[in-house]
Amino acid sequence: MVNKKIIYSAKQVISTEILALKKLLGSIDASFCQAVNVITNTKGRIVCCGVGKSAKILEKISSTFSSIGISGFTLDPTDAGHGSLGALKKKDILLMASFSGNSYELNHILEYAKKNKIKIIGISSNKQSNLMKTSDIKILMPSVIEAGNKNLNMIPTSSSLNLLAIGDCLAISVAGEK
C-alpha cells in the first residue's frame, strides 16, 4: 500500500537538501581554490577532525582522499586530548569542520596546530567562530534549512550533505590538479 504522506515527506527532504546544495554551489570561492592548492602541494597527510555528525562525514572525506592517493586519517578530539595529538606532524594539513565552529572539544587541537605551524583548513557556517578565526584557510559554508519539520530543524541533514559535498569537491578538484 502506498502511503502518500510518507512519499510527500521524503520528497520534501530531497527538495530541502537540493536547495541547500544550490546555496553551496553559490558559495564556492577563492578560499576553496586556496584549499585545493594547499592540499595538492602537501608533502604531509590530510588529518580530518570534527565532532558529532561532522566527524562521521570527515571519516568519509578522509577515505576519499586515500582513494586518490593522499594519505591521511581522522583524529578523534577526545583521543587527541589524551595523547593522540602527537600523530600530527608539521607537514600535515588539519582539515577541521564544525557547524558552529565553536565546539570546545576542538580548541586544544587548534592551539596545538597553531603552536606547531600545522596548516589549518577550517570549514564552518559561522564566520565569527573560533575555528574560522584560527584557520589559515577558511571555507565558509552557507546557512541552510535542515530537512524535516520545524521541530526537527536541529537534526543535521542539509548541513551534513553540504559538508559531504564540499569534501567530494575538494578531493575531485585535487585529483584533477594532480
Mean pLDDT across every amino acid position: 94
Largest sheet: 5 strands, parallel
Described by its quaternary structure, the protein is single chain
Characterize the overall form.
globular
Q: Rg to the nearest angstrom?
A: 17 Å
What is the strand tally?
5
Structural class: alpha/beta
- As a percent range, the share of strand residues is 5-15%
- State the end-to-end CA separation: 51 Å
Helix coverage percent: 40-55%
The low-confidence parts are none
Order of helices and strands: HHEHEHEHEHEH
Numbering strands along the chain, what is their spatial order in the largest sheet? 2-1-3-4-5
Total helix count? Answer: 7
Question: Can you characterise this structure?
Answer:
The structure is a single chain. The chain is of the alpha/beta class. It is built from seven helices and five strands, in the order H-H-E-H-E-H-E-H-E-H-E-H. The protein has helices at 4-25, 30-40, 53-67, 77-80, 104-115, 130-134, 158-177; strands spanning 46-50, 72-74, 93-97, 119-124, 137-140. Strands 2-1-3-4-5 form a five-stranded parallel sheet, sandwiched between helices. Helix 1 (4-25) crosses helix 7, helix 2 packs across helix 7 (158-177) and helix 3 runs parallel beside helix 7 (158-177). The N and C termini lie far apart (51 Å). 38% of the residues are buried.
List its traits:
5 strands; 178 residues; alpha/beta
Outline of the structure:
This protein has 178 residues and is an alpha/beta fold. The protein is 50% helix and 13% strand. It has helices at 4-25, 30-40, 53-67, 77-80, 104-115, 130-134, 158-177; strands spanning 46-50, 72-74, 93-97, 119-124, 137-140.
